[in-house]
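Note to self: the last two entries modelled the partners one at a time, which told us nothing about the interface. This time every component goes in together.
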Amino acid sequence: MTHLGLRARASAVFAAGAFVVSASLAAGTYQLTRQSLVTERERTATRAAYFDAAVVRQGLATEGAAVVDVLRTLDTGQGRRPLVLRGGQWFARTADTGFTAAVPESLRAVVRDGSPGVQRVSLNGVPTLVVGVPLRDVDANYYELTAQTELQRTLRQLGITLAVGALATTLAGAALGLWASRRILHPLASVARAARTIAAGDLTTRLDPARDADLAPLTDAFNEMVDELEVRVEADRRFAADVSHELRSPLQTLTAATGVLANRRDSFDARTGLATDLVVSEVDRFSALVEDLLELARGDRPVERREVPVAAALRSVCDAHGVEPRFVRVDARLTWPLDARRFERAAANLVDNAKRHAGGVTSLVCDADDDVLRLVVQDAGPGVPPDERRMIFDRFGRGRRASARGGTGASDGTGLGLALVAQHVAAHGGTVEVADADGGGACFIASFPRGRP
Amino acid sequence: MVSRDDDAVPSVLIVEDDDRIRLSLQLALEDEGYVVTAVASAEQGLQRQQSAPADSILVDLMLPGMDGFDCIRGLRRLGDAPIVVVSARDDTHDIVAALEAGADDYVVKPVRVKELSARLRALRRRTRAAAPALPVMTLDDLEVSPEAGEVRVAGAPVSLTRTEFRLLCTLMEQPGRVLSRGALLDQVWQYEFGDERLVDVHVGRLRRKIEVDPAQPVHLVTVRGLGYKLV
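The predicted structure of the combined assembly is written out below.
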């Protein structure tokens, strides 16, 4: 399930609020206006009907006057229709088109009993007011139908206006919500920026606490967190430096002293000579192991990229590891934003791996498209079985074939070479994998995406 | 200061406070044919170099009393003998600071003494190993006499360390040609595979000595993504 974003939710809430307020206001306004208009119109219509009734009574009181003629003397305009019920017979000015039927029985009963009455009916879909006035002395009942067409139109217009107003208010509420949430979220963008800078390794970044008093708790907490982080990182760094110093110092003594022993190897007897060989080769191996471990320990440091001439970098690696130039194919003009030291270490470890465990490099190709630089190293070994293709990049994750072939002394690696390759490549945001080479053997493919130098 | 490039018995001064490391380095370097003087502090090292200058010097960075960086600065004032830092610290910060202070090279412990010895041999040269005797070279107001080991900028002599001199000669021999950091490491330090910070810091040091405005170099220019050239 996906949750709506804060901004979407804020504008939805603002819109809903604006809708409720504006809609109830509109409904209230409509109701009140309608009521007062209707009452006003009814009063007017009733007054007019009473007046007309008085005129009709006077007319009918005159001996021999015809009811229709009397009705015709009324000045009623378009909206009003006078009717007279006399002796069970209806009289009107024009032909009856359902007017008489529109006078409800209940009203007739009231008027028959001698009281005036008013009732609202619908005549052919038009709301109509029926006013009934008993004319006792002339033995007739007067009814007047007043169509409320104009009122209806007015009310409809009012309704539309209010609805449009409510809709506009709702939209304005949504817009306000969006704007407000954006304003509120704006400081979070600077928090995000700061967090990213810190993640990139700059621990001196802090938020400006003076910017907004309301955000002080967030700013303070953030800055405290970074302070704490800086202290810890510094402590880790110092520990790593101490460990590095404490491991390297005795190794320096051992390396120099075993060098002296090795120089005199020929003057030793056989047993002392063998023991010397063991010490010398183990000191070498231990030095390499410490070097790799220390490198692994600081591998999470960010890369320092700059445009590196790839061919030159790989040439120095290949020269140092005795890879023949005929196996190497790199465009001499190719440059790529890389951490030169870590790229060279990754390449050197791949070459070293081929040399130690797989009979040497048979091909080293490096090329790039727009986005990715690919370094492909093939060897002459037995290849890596599919179930070991992940594991060989783990720390000390030697494959079966590598350990089976793992000879004695100096030819044995530290078991960290490929883990370091994976780490250096990952630091560049890339990946390394192993596949089968075309002519047998393993094929290591390291990709280095283009990053900003 | 007497140049002793061709001395049959080169001398080396070791400034290292760890007794065992000092002794083992001394034994091993003596095996390599050096006359070794080993001292335990920067103060002793400076005193020794003043009274009986050695051809080259190994310095540790973490020393009691005066630290390695100040020791390097002091030694640099005493002469142009190559200084190699031999330290257990491998922070970029330390490496760059030591090179800025005047060191010619930086190796991280543990280092094989045969390698160290090769380093020292390469650093003692004023010019490239394979270079034939070079004539006096000029470029604008820059004048380099490889034989005499002299550099003049607008007629005024400038004092360079051996490594700075070798770097300048290497660039001067190939004016206008872009030399990659790798190529310079190879030709100046004889490293097949090494730390490019060496090149960058030495280029900076050289600029401060031969450029009018080191921040806006006109002779020793950076070619982005490729390396450096002298124009």
